[in-house]
Design goal:
2 domains, two-stranded antiparallel sheet, 420 residues, alpha/beta, four-stranded mixed sheet
């Protein structure tokens, strides 16, 4: 505790009797004026519990989130994933979506807390979902502009709605606050909100789109998904497996992300904003793609997943198609480096990474080697150190081996793919 010590001035008074030859004279005492003591600085209140969860703020890792008191990142948790559906998503689609995320959790572990937000076509339904999202983020202080504007939570809420649903959200907040780079964009005229980007209608249906978007700094995994129309009968005759694969794919990203504890992001050599230990794009996307394609077929074979009548291709069929695509692209990057392939490259990181992971796991003779051997080492050794420790080969040497593998005949390449 800090105190401001008071100064006590004590004047010792003497009564002096002065005698003269002719008369006695007394001198009246001088009474000092007392000085007011400074007010002590207020002590910090160590008993404040802002979110009312029974844990005081000083001991609470998330003092504005009443559902979370400690950082559970990287732990297997006993917390149900939270799925938020726009109200134009059918009940059937909601049930199948929930089933699929639980299949992924059963296979790879329950890494949470987790929020998954699923958009549909309807603008009003998306706006309602965005309002739920923004109320949650605002009440928990989970917006990067929250600290700057927390004295006006109405503005915080309004900015969040713009962030998620522009151009459909009210821009009233912008009358008094310039958006210019302070919050999330330099130019709102060219900006599309985060939820709106997943709601966008294409050929009368939203894009088939999903992503993991964080949020490590707030202690939970945040995912967004476009309408899972494949679960319902549709005019395009697209089977439910196509959406199941997306759900499994995104959840494997959760597993990967959960095993990276750092909150720091850097811009890598390809211009991508990453947490370094997460691994290069091709390996992250390749592992999520390959292991999801493997898992759904394993679940079908084990009688856990009911296959659609019009979904009959094997994993080798899938990988043959991917290899044909890869070979077509390879002429544009004959000496590619896997760690440098990124989104938008002429040589697609998903396709190259999918075959790279297939080659790696066959080399390790363990379909689960990537998450079982690499992930536990990421925080201590970094990605490339963990890779070398797990597989006994540097990433550069592996890249060269993979280049040589791609020169083999397709039938020989397919021998490394499980017959499932």
């Amino acid at each position: 505790m800090k105190y401001s010590p008071s100064l006590l001035f004590i004047c010792v008074l003497s009564f002096v009797l002065i005698y003269s030859c002719s008369e006695e004279e007394s001198v009246a005492p001088v009474v000092p004026t007392s000085q007011p003591e400074p007010e002590p600085e207020p002590e910090p209140d160590l008993e404040v519990d802002t979110d009312g969860d029974g844990v005081v703020d000083t001991q609470d890792d998330f003092p504005l989130n009443s559902t979370l008191t400690e950082d559970l990142w990287g732990q297997i948790v006993d917390i149900e994933p939270e799925l938020f559906f726009a109200n134009d998503i059918s009940q059937n689609a909601q049930e199948q979506f929930r089933r699929d995320i639980n299949l992924a959790i059963t296979e790879w572990g329950n890494f949470g807390p987790l929020e998954y937000w699923i958009l549909g076509n309807d603008i009003n339904a998306a706006l309602e979902l965005a309002e739920i999202y923004c109320e949650r983020r605002t009440s928990r202080g989970e917006l990067f502009y929250y600290n700057e504007l927390q004295d006006n939570l109405t503005n915080v809420m309004s900015i969040c709605l713009t962030e998620m649903m522009h151009p459909h959200a009210d821009l009233g907040w912008n009358n008094n606050i310039s958006s210019g780079g302070t919050f999330f964009t330099d130019d709102l005229s060219n900006y599309k909100g985060g939820f709106e980007d997943y709601r966008v209608v294409s050929d009368n249906l939203p894009q088939m789109n999903a992503s993991l978007n964080g949020l490590r700094q707030y202690g939970f995994h945040y995912l967004v998904h476009s309408m899972p129309f494949q679960y319902d009968e549709n005019e395009f005759n697209i089977p439910k497996e196509d959406n199941t694969l997306v759900v499994l794919h995104e959840y494997f990203h959760v597993v990967n992300s959960a095993n990276v504890f750092s909150k720091d992001f850097i811009t890598d050599e390809t211009g991508n904003s990453v947490r370094p230990a997460y691994g290069p794009t091709a390996m992250a996307e390749g592992s999520a793609s390959y292991l999801s394609d493997y898992l759904i077929r394993k679940l079908i074979n084990d009688g856990i997943y009911d296959k659609s009548d019009n979904w009959n291709h094997s994993l080798r069929d899938e990988m043959r198609s991917r290899m044909n695509e890869l070979q077509d692209m390879l002429v544009n990057c004959p000496n590619f480096i896997l760690s440098e392939l990124n989104y938008g490259n002429v040589c697609d990181p998903y396709t190259f990474g999918m075959w790279g992971i297939a080659y790696l796991l066959n080399r390790a003779e363990n379909i689960d080697a990537y998450q079982e051997l690499v992930f536990p080492l990421l925080n201590d050794l970094g990605y490339y150190g963990a890779f070398e420790e797990a597989f006994g080969i540097t990433f550069e040497a592996f890249n060269q081996e993979f280049l040589e593998f791609l020169e083999l005949p397709i039938e020989q390449q397919l021998e490394i793919i499980p017959d499932i």
